[in-house]
Amino acid sequence: METPQDVVPSWNPIEVSLKRNEVIEALRTVYDPEIPVNIYDLGLIYDVDVTPEGVACIQMTLTSPACPAAQSLPGEVEWKVRQVAGIADVQVHVVWDPPWSMDRMSEEAKLELGLL
Fold first, then answer.
1. Of 7, 57, 67, 76, which has fewest CB within 10 angstroms of its CB?
2. pTM recorded for the entire structure
């Protein structure tokens, strides 16, 4: 008998898009410990891809290679995305190119930090 863990999703494009939105909402619950803005609006997430099989691939960066959260943030991202119903696996890739800059921040983030 199959258990829910044995069932591999096979989502259509609309379901993939909806699941991607859920993953983004999960990412918005992760905060850089030094900046009171979530990492998605901060512009640290470069790409979010969800496959029809339920694999979430996250490409992210940090504010700098010396960021104190370098050890904890990728793991927190993976943990939060794994909590999204239907996600079978999570792959987090930390990249340094292109380097992060404040230009990547959303308007909401800039307002929150008093930059607008």
1. 7
2. 0.87
